[in-house]
Amino acid sequence: MFDKILIANRGEIACRVIRTCKRLGIKTVAVYSEADADALHVREADEAVLIGPPPSAQSYLLIDKIIEACKQTGAQAVHPGYGFLSEKEAFQKALAAEGIKFIGPDARAIYAMGDKIESKKLAQKAGVSTVPGYLAAIPNAEEAVKIAQKIGYPVMIKASAGGGGKGMRIAYNDVEAHEGFGSATNEAKASFADDRVFIEKYVEEPRHIEIQLIADGHGNCIYLWERECSIQRRHQKVIEEAPSPFLDAKTRKAMGEQAVALAKAVKYKSAGTVEFIVDKHRKFYFLEMNTRLQVEHPVTELITGVDLVELMIRVAAGEKLPFQQKDVKLEGWAVEARVYAEDPFRNFLPSTGRLVKYREPQPGPDVRVDTGVFEGGEISMFYDPMIAKLCSYGPTRNAAIDRMRRALDEFYVRGVSHNVPFLAALMAHPRFVAGNLTTNFIAEEFKGGFTAEHLPPGDPAMLAAIAAVVDRIHGHRAGSPQSERVVMLNRAPIAVSVSGGGLEYVIETEGRHIVIETGWLPGEPLVRAKVDQHDIVVQVDALGSGWRLVHEGGQADVLVLTPRQAELYALMPVKAAPDTSKFLLSPMPGLLASVAVSEGQEVKAGEALAVVEAMKMENVLRATRDGTVKTLHAKAGDSLRVDQKIIEFA
Question: Biotin carboxylation domain: from which residue to which, for each copy (predicted)?
Answer without folding.
Answer: 1-447
